[in-house]
Amino acid sequence: MSTMTDNFVPRRKKRITGRSIAILAFLAMCAAFFCIPLYVVIVTSFKTMDQIRLGEIFSLPVTWTLEPWREAWSEACSGIKCEGVSAGFFASLKILFPSLILSLSVSSVTGYALALWNVRWAGTFMFILFMCAFVPFQIIMIPMIILTGKIGVYGTIWGVAVVHAVLALPILTLIFRNFYKDIPGEIMQAAIMDSGSFWRIYREIILPMSANIFIVVLILQITSIWNDFLIGITFGGLNNKPMTVILANTVISATGESSYNVDMAAALLTAIPPLLIYFVLGKFFVQGITAGAIKG
Amino acid sequence: MPTIAFEHIYKDYGSLRVLADLNLSVDDGEFLVLLGPSGCGKTTLLNMLAGLQDVTAGTIRIGEEDITELDPKDRGLAMVFQSYALYPTKSVRGNLKFGLAAQKLDRAEIDRRVQWAAELLQITPLMDRKPAHLSGGQRQRVAIGRALVKNVDVFLFDEPLSNLDAKLRTEMRLEIKTLHEQTKSTIVYVTHDQIEAMTMATRIAVMDGGVIQQFGTPDEVYETPANLFVAGFIGAPAMNILDATITSSGPQASATLSDGTKIDLSHYEFTANPNEGQAVKVGLRPEHFDTSGKGGVVSLTLPVASRERTGSDATIFLKFGDDLIAVRAEPAEARDVMVGDNFAVSFPAGKLNLFDAQTGQRM
Amino acid sequence: MAIRWSRWSPQIALAPAVIVTAVAFIGSIGWTIYISFTGSRRFPDYAIDPERWSRQYERLAKDRAWGISLDNLIVFGIGSLLAIVFGFILAAMIEREKRGEDVFRTIFLYPLAISLIVTGIVWRWMFNPSLGVENFLHQLGWESASFDWLSSAETAMYGIILASLWQSSGFFMALMLSGLKSINSEIWSAARLDGVGVFRLYIEIIIPMMKFTFLTCAILLSLGVVKAYDIIVAMTNGGPGQSTWMPALFTINAYSAKSNIAYASAAAVMMLVITLAIFLPLLLLFIWQQKRRKAAVA
């Protein structure tokens, strides 16, 4: 035993190299570039207008105040209405739920059918979906306005929700399809021999296996619907503007002197829900955007 | 009761024809093994029987019924897959129950069957576990259980033992054989493992290149291979195949090996009459050699090239021209010979195989 | 013989998606293309005057705002390419220096979770001439510093590009990072044993191995550039004057401000043509590369 310890000569630990320090310093500088805008917004939202007028954009608030946040939430004027961004918050929530249910159910079933069942024209259809995922929204905007008008949902929550679901259909279907096609073929063969029922296999075998991809797609969809501006402003009409639209109206079309602290508080209020999701479920968020990107 | 029959089956993948005019029929209660190297079409044939792949042309019958166009679930079959294909999100019980999804049964009957299968396979303590928490052998049992609960007459197995280690494989082989004897069902079993085929089958269909090379009992396939492919594929170490020429035909038929050694064929049961001067292949199984070196239809004294000990057996390799001849020997015997020594062996009458060198068919 | 329901149920299940695709995408695209040849104004008018079917496109060609939009598209596209370069550098550094990977990745990527409207508003505040970063630089004593990019027609586009780099670089970093991670780690070891310099390793080995990732990034970037709208609305709303107009903004404006359906449709068709003109060659290149790789493997 003693001889073993006698021969034990510890090597010095490797020290951090100069190159590592240089890389870390560069990364830290980049991190600062990414963090500065967020920092500026946060401090501005807690400042009084008196301090903001001094023009010290990076300084901390002298007196911390929650007043801008209160005002942004319930009083800030968007156009002629002065009810803050809270109205938009609730409108966005109301858009979110029907849209999520519609798009997730249709695209997961479609992806399942395309990936695991023998449909002769599946390849052609997937190619069309693939192309549709890339067309600019403007090319279908006007007919969609007319169509939603015809079925009576234009200018309603449902109008916005349906258009979101339609627009997301190609990409979400492809994401689901790519997930399902990796399910082992023998499991599907066993299920076909055991049950043979399209819906029963979906409900009992496939759906319970899809928890991960559902979370990924859910996060992708929540953030993209919440952050959308164009569809909301085009299809929401006057009374169903999502939060981004209210925010834009509040900040951009304001008349007179801008209350920058209120503007920044309103912007933060709009950004908080997706940021929360991002910081809590970051792993799924990254999966979602890379899946949406690479498979798309 | 069902006889499974494949009648004039064709299968094309695009422009590639993998099966052409294949005919095969299995009687009720048989244990049929489809044996062949990978890519020989055996799994395709099984999948077509299961209804998982379409038939390009031809008819598949079970009993009198034409099932070629039926849905998999309506064919009255159960299948055990190579990867077991257990549903990962369902417990063992859930897996067994889902096997009954297509059959409209009341709950009591379902429970009765699940319990019966669980007891038969000794998986009762595992019923509430998920597949991820089972060992390979346990998964295998659950996969078999899922097939058993269906209470069907025909079971299909697609290389079910290939993912198990050697010891478990031997155990499961016995269990499947016992199960077959207990349930009296018809089994179609696909494998590339000749030991599984020889130990379990009542009939073997040896396949290669989409063609059934030989269909017969394990003994027939082993003792009287129909052609060179079957002769070379079955048996380990493989049959020694030597070039020879027929030197005389008729009742005193004989052949000569390439080194001039004469082979007495007077006791050989020809299926086709040989011609003098015809090129043939002589097949000699390693275990049939007589190491005392006397008598027999052919005697050889050859230098030893190497020896190999394989547990209970030993193999001595003899130099014959550029080829090696494998001879099975007792381990003690093999230990005593030295490389380079001359070793005398003879081959008994009635064990010899003779093939046409051109067509490869048995003569 | 039993009816093979299993053949039908998947097709029935696909019906909603097929109908949506046929109506909302294919039908709508066809409608828009058709309308772009008519003289529709506020409401669709389906008559096509055979003499003047191309009038909307002729008008587009003469429209100064459309010309500016196209110029800006090119400027914005080239500027945004920096996001790929920047993203790659970040990813390569994170991958090389494993320390702090999660922290850095989280920081670089968070802007992507934020609405472009918010991004635009935030940067607009940073660019504020009297109270923003410029003022701060002046207070520091750097009197000639100019960070008031948005209020001048010459620099406004660069302001938008900077904000969009801030927003999207993390995204390209994430794609590059997953591309880098898929490279066999033995290559790094082999290069170390061979004593290949870092720079040469990246130029000669790593970047050529990642050409798929780069192509994917290029495709996504080009699509994003053509679609750019929100960030412009939030930062400049097209101004000063029309100096930051882009095709997407032009199209929406033709519809909502000018109430000219046919004109807006023609602009939308041009957007589609531009998208296809960038996208299809890249896609073909992608497919061709993939075939070559498959052939090499086989």
Description:
The complex is a heterotrimer of chains A (296), B (363) and C (298). In chain A, 49% of the residues are buried. Chain A is built from 15 helices and no strands. With 296 residues, chain A is mainly alpha-helical. Chain A has helices spanning 2-6, 18-45, 49-52, 67-74, 86-116, 122-132, 138-150, 157-180, 185-194, 198-209, 211-227, 230-235, 243-252, 260-280, 282-294. In chain B, the strands form 4 sheets. Chain B has a 6-stranded mixed β-sheet, with helices on both faces. In chain B, strands 13-12-11-14-19 form a 5-stranded antiparallel β-sheet. Chain B has 2 domains: 4-233, P-loop containing nucleotide triphosphate hydrolases (Rossmann fold), CATH 3.40.50; 240-356, Beta Barrel (OB fold (Dihydrolipoamide Acetyltransferase, E2P)), CATH 2.40.50. Helices cover 24% and strands 33% of the residues of chain B. In chain B, strand 16 and strand 17 form a beta hairpin. Chain B has helices spanning 42-50, 92-98, 107-120, 136-148, 166-183, 194-200, 218-223, 228-233, 331-336, and strands at residues 4-13, 16-26, 31-35, 57-62, 65-66, 77-80, 154-158, 186-191, 203-208, 211-216, 240-248, 254-257, 262-264, 279-284, 298-310, 313-320, 323-329, 342-347, 353-356. The model of chain C has no long low-confidence stretch (mean pLDDT 85). Chain C has helices at residues 5-35, 55-62, 64-96, 101-109, 116-126, 133-140, 156-181, 185-194, 198-209, 211-227, 230-235, 247-256, 261-297. Chain C has a single domain (64-297), classed as MetI-like fold. Chain C has 298 residues and is an all-alpha fold. Chain C has 13 helices and no strands. In chain C, 73% of the residues lie in helices and 0% in strands. Chains in contact: A-B, A-C, B-C. Chain B binds chain C through residues 69-71, 74, and chain C through 1-2, 4-6.
